[in-house]
Amino acid sequence: MNAVEINTLDYTILAETAADVGEREALLDRAMGAGRKRKSSEKLRRGRRPSEGLAFVARDADGRVVGTVRLWDVHAGGDRRALLLGPLAVDPSVKSGGIGSALMQHAIAEAKRLGHAAILLVGDAPYYSRFGFSVEKTGRLAMPGPYERHRLLALELADGALDAVHGVLRPAGRKVRPRVELARAA
User: Fold this and answer.
1) What residues contact residue 121 under an 8 Å CB cut-off, 6+ apart?
2) For the segment 67-110, what is each residue's pLDDT rounded down to a tens digit?
3) Distance CA 133, CA 123 (A)
4) What is the number of other CB atoms lying within 10 angstroms of the CB of residue 101?
5) Most exposed of 33, 66, 74, 171 (fewest Cβ within 10 Å)?
6) Sign of the CA dihedral 120, 164, 111, 129?
7) Exposed e or buried b for every residue in 104-129, given b needs 16+ CB within 10 A?
C-alpha cells in the first residue's frame, strides 16, 4: 500500500518503499546506536523481509524520514504465527511529537486489518502498555539469545491467539533474496 495513511501538519505516514531503506537505516543508527544490530530481536529479523504490508515510515513536511516501524512474521511456539514489532524509532530531533504513537497505532490497526492475531515486541512496558501490550501472555515464550524477560510483551488482536503458546520465537515469513539472485532477475 503506497497511499498516504495518516497526514498531519507535521508528518505523513506511508508504506515503506525500497527507496526509503537508506534513510531508514541512517535514522535507526541515530536513534538506537550501533549496538542495535546485536539485539535478540535482530536474530529473528536477519535474512527476512518485513511482513507483507507492515513496514511504515513517517516523513516530515520536507519529505525526510523521521520515523519508522516494521512488523515481522515469527513462529510463537510451535506453528502458531505472530508478528514481532520493531524497531520503532523516531528521529531524536523530533522526539515527543507524537510520531512514535501514531506509527504504533497505525501498525497495530494495519496488522489487525490484515488478519494477524498477535503482536510481540521487546520494549519498555510503561511506553507500550498504553497500546495494550503486557507480559500477561509471554510467560512461556522466549527470545533467541539474551533479553530481559520483563521486556517481552504481547498484544492479542484476536482473543486467545496466544493461549497455551510456549517455546522460543523463531523467524518465519519471506526471506531476503540474495543480491546475485536479484541481479539475475533484472
Assistant:
1) 41, 84, 85, 86, 128, 133, 152, 153, 154
2) 999 999 999 987 889 999 999 999 998 888 899 999 999 999 99
3) 10
4) 15
5) 33
6) negative
7) bebbbebbeeeebbbbbbbbeeeebe
Per-residue pLDDT band at 2 (split at 50, 70, 90) = very low
Left, alpha or beta for 71 (phi > 0: left; psi -120 to 50: alpha)? beta
For residues 155 and 114, the answer to whether their CB atoms sit within 8 Å is: no
Q: State the average pLDDT over residues 7-19.
A: 83
- Pull the grid cell for residue 49: 523481509
Domains of the chain: 6-185 (3.40.630.30)
Q: Are β-strands 89-90 and 152-156 bridged in parallel, bridged antiparallel, or unpaired? A: unpaired
Strands 141-142 and 167-168 come out as parallel
CB distance 122 to 152 below 8 Å? yes
